Amino acid sequence: MSAASDTRAATETDDGVRVAHRAHWGWWVLTAFVLLFAAGIVQMLFTNPNLEWGVVVSWFFSQSIVFGLLRTLELTVLAMVFGILLGMLTAVMRLSPIKILSTVAWFYTWFFRGTPLLVQLIFWYNLAALFPTIDIGIPFVGPTVWAGNANQIVTPFMAALLGLALNEGAYMSEIVRGGILSVDQGQHEAAVALGMRTSRALRRVILPQAMRVIVPPTGNQVIGMLKSTSLVSVTSMPELLYSAQLVYNRTFQTIPLLIVASIWYLIVTSVLSVIQYYIERHYAKGGRRALPPTPWEKLKRTLARLAPPQTTTASRRA
Q: What range(s) does the ABC transmembrane type-1 domain occupy (predicted)?
């Protein structure tokens, strides 16, 4: 082995190809800096008494915190389901040749992406100040078909769901539209030539190919939605963060309760990241020479490289 080969660090790509990179002294400096920084964080976590890890453990599985966590998950799931459905509908409307549909879809996207989510949540929560009663009927000419009290209809939960879902739908519409536009126009033309209607071609040909582009940002949106639910605390909605706030407003243990909420957010986002990884891996079929390895496969490869080489009987005799 030459001296040059000893200064190279080998890395392995997802396709199993090992690529050698020339080592540099800056790598060692950067590694030492990162290790020292990590050691300082670990020391702070174990030696700072203000973190009060005993309080964190005692409140981690408390009824109020778990109830807030479940409400956060409920809001995340419902807001993403409605947001994805609304985003797909809006994206198709944006691409429609019918001018009125594309104009309405553009205005919806422009408005809900152009105003902050916090402002939208506060607006929906105070909707009764603008419309004390919600009436359904034909404007100017027809009688009221149905009327209801706005405070009873738009509850804190409904206000949070409306704000999150409508805002998410605007972002998802651009994600879905970008995914549809990423598919070659010839795919649509070939589907139409086979006798498919536009709706069926979109469902059977275009969207399956667009999923490789749609899934990664959608996964990021789900994780972002989980954290955005913390904003609904302004509507007195007892989600995870607001539940922690209620506790530390009573016990004055602010930092430990914020740590409890942060750890739960990290746990859920980690689970969502793993799910996102496997969904992306599924839709990567046909678009790559080889599928990216799973974490278990990466671990087996690492262990195989670290294991000592086994000598055969012939080599021993030699």
A: 69-276
> The domain 54-284: what is its CATH number?
1.10.3720.10
Q: Which value, in Å, is the radius of gyration of the alpha carbons in the chain?
A: 27
Q: Which residues sit opposite 20 in a β-bridge?
A: 10
Q: Tell me: the pLDDT tens digits for 4-17?
A: 444 455 555 555 55
pLDDT (tens digit, 9 = 90+) per residue, 121-147? 999 999 988 888 877 777 777 677 677
The predicted model scores a pTM of 0.81
Structure tokens at 228: 């955005």
Quick one: which of 105, 103, 80 has its CA closest to 219? 80
Among the listed residues 87, 286, 260, the one whose alpha carbon sits nearest the alpha carbon of residue 169 = 87
Q: Which residue has the tokens 């071609």?
A: 201
Task: Decide if 2 contacts 15 (C-beta within 8 A).
Answer: no
* Residue-wise burial string across 196-229, b where 16 or more C-beta atoms lie within 10 A, e elsewhere: beeeebbeebbbebbbbbbbbbbbebbbebbebb
Alpha-carbon torsion, ordered 88, 91, 93, 99, to 10 deg: 170
